[in-house]
Amino acid sequence: MTDDDRGDRDGSGAGGFEDVEDSSDFGEVEDGLLEEELRQAAAALDPVPEALRQLALDAYALYDLDARVAELTFDSLLDSLPVRGAGDVPRMLTFQVGELSVDVEVGGDGLMGQVLPPQPARIEVLSGPGPGASLTADELGRFTGAPPPVGPFALRLHTGGDVVVTEWLRA
Amino acid sequence: MSSRTALRTAYDDRSYTRGESVERAEVGALVRSAVDGDAAAWKALVEGLGPLVWSVVRAHRLSDADGHEVYQTVWFRFAQHLGRIREPDKAGSWLASTARNECLKTLRSLSRLTVTDDPQLLDRVSEDGTPEQSLLDSEEAAAHSERVRRLWQEFDQLGDRCRRLLRVLMASPPPSYQEVSAALGVAVGSIGPLRQRCLRRLRARLDARGTS
């Protein structure tokens, strides 16, 4: 409520009618007109940027029924206490699907992680619909890569005959 | 005057019943077609729901860089989950709440980094975002674009709650109240009354400036 009280004061000179319940059709129509005007203003002044529209169109290439999606189950950004005065602490992420989990640390100099249960894997670091940099996890499932992802990213893991993609998130 | 008449006509052409407009009824069918490999259906989803996702991003006042990344992340994740969306009819709500969560996550990480002076947070409307040049071709059109500019200015100065709600409501095509609820984390039942209050407050501000 409080953040809207400003509007009351601003509008008081104009006769404070705006908060009077007006259930008439006229009021409804007027509301609808003003909303429609806002819609046209938004379309003109603040539309979806063309580059983003194109990226969303291209994102259809990321639709892959054959891949399993490993969901984010831990994110140190959300699930741990803030670390005072330490902006360069790596971000810890855990993704999980079925029995498989992927631990990832994203730090200033790159990313490292481990596939569990331990197993070799080919890993692509995706940043969009196109192909991504390729990494290899050793027999213990450990992998490292540089540079660190910037912006949206996901890991696509090829293990045995299986393809697993981690849920998209922002680095 | 004529621009106002045109607006009235445009408005009367569409259903007053939110969430039951033709566009929204098609969402479930479009999702199912996209799942079956129909790229045109995906395109229709992007055209129909992209403005809603963008509105949610804008309603949260992220910097341009953050906003762009959130927008992409939401669509990448939607594509990734496409075949697993449990209620295709509610894809709009799925997108809206995913966008909201990403926005909140961004705002939380920003406050954690104690960034206090991001200049991009201050000014939303860039100069190159002015209405199409063709609108300026006549005096009447110039008056119209001036009104649009003032409308936007007054909207932008509303209190947070109203500004956020209206920014989501003004997505095109109009979002359903379920989608607005998902976008803002407010109860569906509170949207109608709040919408009325915010629109009338905005009109009062315009009247006070003598621009209505």
Can you tell me about this structure?
The complex is a heterodimer of chains A (171) and B (212). Chain A has four helices and ten strands; from the N terminus they run H-H-H-E-H-E-E-E-E-E-E-E-E-E. With 171 residues, chain A is an alpha+beta fold. In chain A, strand 8 and strand 9 form a beta hairpin. The longest helix of chain A is centred in the first third of the chain and has 21 residues, at 25-45. Chain A is elongated. Chain B has one domain. With 212 residues, chain B is an all-alpha fold. Chain B has helices at residues 2-12, 22-35, 39-59, 64-81, 91-113, 139-156, 160-169, 177-184, 188-208. Chain B starts with a helix and ends with a helix. Chain B contains nine helices and no strands. Chain B is globular. Chains A and B meet through helix 1, helix 2, helix 3 and strand 10 of A and helix 1, helix 3, helix 4, helix 5 and helix 6 of B.
Keywords:
heterodimer; A: 171 residues; alpha+beta; 10-stranded mixed beta sheet; 4 helices; 10 strands; B: 212 residues; mainly alpha; 9 helices; 68% helix; disordered N terminus
Derived from helix and strand composition plus strand pairing, the structural class of chain A reads: alpha+beta
Shape of chain A, please?
Answer: elongated
Q: So how many helices of chain A?
A: 4
Number of strands of chain B: 0
As a percent range, the share of helical residues of chain A equals: 10-25%
The description of the largest β-sheet of chain B is: none
The poorly predicted ranges of chain B are: 1-17, 114-130
SSE string of chain B, helices as H and strands as E:
HHHHHHHHH
Tally of individual domains of chain B: 1
Greatest interface and its participating residue counts: A-B, 66 and 78 residues
Distance between the termini of chain A: 35 Å
Which quaternary structure do these chains form?
Answer: heterodimer
- End-to-end C-alpha gap of chain B: 11 Å
Structural class category of chain B: mainly alpha
Q: How many distinct helices of chain B?
A: 9
The share of residues in extended strands of chain B comes to under 5%
